[in-house]
Amino acid sequence: MANLKGRDLKGIADFSREEIQNTLEVSGLLKRELEIGRAHRLLEGKSLGGIFETPSTRTSISFETAMTQLGGHMLWLDEHRLWVGAAEEEDWPDTIKTIDRYLDGIAYRAIRRERLDLAAQVARIPLINASCPVEHPCQAFADAMTMIEKKGPLQKAKVAFLWGWRTANPPAGLTNSTMLMAGKLGFELVIACPPGFEPDLSIKAEADREASSSGGSIKIVHSYEEAVKGADFINVYSWVSPAVFAKGLETHFKGDPEFQAAKAKLKNDWCVTKKVVGQAKKDALVMHCMPISRNTEVTDEVLNSPASIIFDEAENRLHTEKAILALTMGGYR
Ligand code: CP
Question: If I label 179, which of 36, 137, 208, 282 is the partner at 20 to 30 A Cα–Cα?
């Protein structure tokens, strides 16, 4: 078993292939133990600080529940609790160095990647990325666990990762983490997005390097048809174009008029319908990290069909985060 004690998870590249596989195995073990009612209080007496700079349903609740089930505790550290965002704001490293003296780990959802990197740099305790604009590693772990549960090892699996239309787009963090996971675990990933929405090509290059030794592949195309043909899984997500993202947070969260006008033209062509799913394998399964913009990204017909595994995927956030916490915070060896 890999020893992850004391380690950060800022992104998928922080863990080796073996460490990712071990983490997924521990996730499965903890899930089965929970199902049979066997307690696993691996983090008894330990505290996790949860810093969330955006709203979160799945990540925040799964992390807090994970700590409870592991016998520990999660503290909510938002701007109302910390001297962050106040008129007299405390220096960010001072904040992190202080809470580092009380806590055993930090789960941080950051609006700015630089603040996450700085926090990880000054904290001695493990820091887990609970989503930032560059990566969403915990979601990629849950997605991998869900796919393995449904269809076994991923080496021969094809995953179509489809851009879906929505009014407000998040950054491409999950897309980037999924590329890196494809490289680590060796599955075929085909990303379909409109021209101009291609994810970070430097991260793709990193994922390609990993894929060269795992047997995986990562391809970016501009039509659903090419991506879904023969796919075992269809994972839908929506992300802002890197050009708009580069203009700054105000623009990419609230909407740049030029970008919105260009994006409006994509609305009818970039929604995953039953017809799109019908072009994949007969037993293809549909995923989405949620929250979903129903009937613009994916139709209700698809989301409510037996092919949809979105709630299994959401549940597995809990089991994978428990494994990540238990391994990095030293409860599981
Ligand atoms: N998938 C995901 O991260 O959901 P939340 O934003 O609700 O945490």
Answer: 282
User: Ligand 1 pocket, 289 CB below 6 A?
Assistant: yes
* Residue 254 pLDDT class (50, 70, 90 cuts): low
Kindly report the CA angle at 101 between 97 and 106, in degrees rounded to 5? Answer: 70
Using the mean position of ligand 1's atoms as its centre, give its distance from the Cα of residue 213 in Å.
31
pLDDT tens-digit series, residues 97-109:
999 999 999 999 9
pLDDT of 255 over the 70 cut = no
Q: Coil, strand or helix: which one is 49?
A: strand
Give Dmax over CA atoms of the chain in angstroms. 59
Ordered by where they begin, the domains of the chain are: 12-135+316-328 (3.40.50.1370), 139-314 (3.40.50.1370)
pTM of the model: 0.96
Taking the CA of residue 57 as reference, the ligand 1 atom at the shortest distance is: 7
Angle between helices 137-151 and 17-35 (to 10 degrees): 70
Please report how the helices 173-185 and 17-35 are oriented relative to each other, as an axis angle in degrees rounded to 10: 100
Q: Tell which atom from ligand 1 comes closest to the C-alpha of 59.
A: 8
Q: What is the pLDDT of residues 30-79, one digit of tens each?
A: 999 999 999 999 999 999 999 999 999 999 999 999 999 999 999 999 87
Asked whether 35 and 156 are in contact (CB, 8 A), the reply is no
82: CA distance to ligand 1 center in Å?
Answer: 22
Tokens representing 108 are 């941080």
Question: How much of the chain exceeds pLDDT 90, in percent?
Answer: 85
